[in-house]
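Why predict the complex rather than its parts? Because the way molecules touch one another can change local conformation, and only a joint prediction can capture that. The input here totals 648 residues.
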Amino acid sequence: MMKALRSKDALSGLLFLAAGLLSGALSLGLPIGDRIRMGAGYTPLALSIVLTGLGLIVLARGALNGSAPLTGWHARPVSFVLASALMFGLTVERTGLFLSVFLAALTAAGASPAWRRLEAVSLAAGLAIFSSLLFVMLLRLPIKLWP
Amino acid sequence: MDTLSQLWMGFDQVLVPQNLLFCFLGTLIGTLIGVLPGVGPLVAIAILLPITYFLSPLAGLIMLSGIYYGAQYGGSTTAILVRLPGENSSIVTCIDGYEMARQGRAGAALAVAALASLFAGCVATLILAILSPLLIELALLFGPPEYCALMVLGLVAAVVIAQGPIDKALAMIVLGLLVGSIGTDVNSGIPRFTFGVPALMDGIGFIPLAMGVFAMSEVIKSLEDPEARGAGMVTVKRLWPSAEDFRRSWPAAMRGTAIGSSLGILPGGGAYLGSFVAYALEKRISAAPERFGAGAVEGVAAPESANNAAAQTSFIPLLSLGIPGNAVIALMAGAMMMQGIQPGPQVITTRPELFWGLVASMFVGNVMLVIINLPLIRIWVMLLKVPYRLLYPAVIVFACIGTYTVGNNTFDVFVLMVLGLLGYLFLKLDCEPAPLLLAFVVGPLLEENFRRAMHLSRGSLSVFVERPISAGLLLAALTLIVIVALPGIRRGRDRVFEGSS
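Output of the joint prediction:
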């Protein structure tokens, strides 16, 4: 049973099912109304019911037919790429664009094992200079450049 | 005559230094990302979308559309030279293009691809110029029920061309509609699904969604796979095709243009579908089908003209009816809305300079592309040697900067991060995200029109089948679903997609 649930389709079905149930529960807290005067929750509730139904179908089909199992999780790329965005979000308003881009690019370099240290630092510096020139100097976007 | 004078006015708009520059930049970037595998037009347009906010509306649209059709050109270069499709719409070009290159006819294949694309681009742009003003007449007959039916048809078409099982694609559409309903309900002012977070009152931003689900997730996915390597590089000798090549490729380019143009207009259509169908048709009607796969020049001319034609005509539903037919065009719709322009029939009448300027820029851009592509071919090929690790930090950083600058809001960057994780999950689970993005954009429009239709009909659903246009559109949507659900056609569809995975 657990093995059947590990297929890509069954897991997708579970994902859709969970999303449908969650949004359905949240929609019930909104005014529903009727078809002539729809409340804020009318269409979300209808869509949630459809999504829950589709989730059940996908789950059943995946569990019965057993599609390809979910494989090949690599923690390194996913965590460093997301950490890079987190780094940018945390620093950009404090340190300004230049340092923020430098730190984010350096974090991103962690996602691939192929980097040499000096290479990564120079690429990060290059990106920081390039984006400062392009976005702040040339396009004059309202972003702080320095701390 | 009227069309001509309007078009002339469009050229007047384009032939100024600023717009020419952005046309050139767009086609150049399009070629670049077309050549680089792993960076598609969707990602590139998503990254550049925030920048267009600071340009004039016309310059922004010229650049973004240039990226879209430019990518169709660039994709063929790598397909022919290293059997590596830069874009998924160039997958079929690999088959005969690379074979031609191995036989020492790489130059001829490249030239045929470029000339066929140029021809197709110009014809399709002409179709766009003539058909859109006619379609806005049709739009006058459209009430809320018709708009609903048209959007449903578009979403169903997106399901049909999505890869993988139908039920998953349908679920992605519904999920996209739900994500689109996050934020304040326009009718009652009541917040939906905001969990009390003030930053969510305006809903999830279009840009963090597009970049998270496409750019960030693509980066993660590409880093997991070993770096894609093409087959052995082929040297380019003579660029000019032989008389025999010309004789064979002209009719194929014409057929490809016709197929691409018509499939591009349909909701859900686009460059990708056009190239597959055009290639299949050439093979079927050929007197010597065994030549296909062994370096048939028609196998290059037809799909390359089809994908370029479809890229141009897929603007028609957006510019005439205000409804994006595929995910790339949905990004264009997003770009217009950021500038305060509601896409729809009123654009041609109230902002003619925008419509005709865009049309004229497509002629200019197609000519620029031939110039960018053929003489500079060696430079583009060199780019293929750039390792992916030098590219991906730039994609991440630009995605972050782009997301941040739209609202000067770090919350959006965190949304980008979460959606990147979600997009990665979708990729891992083989759930194609393009229908989700389309549904996200169309969702609010669909809800509003459904609400109005129900209000007008006093809650009677029969209004959708009583009005002939809406009944026709819904019938078309139903037919599509039935066709795809039939086992025989399902197998054919899966076979078509097999070559792409």
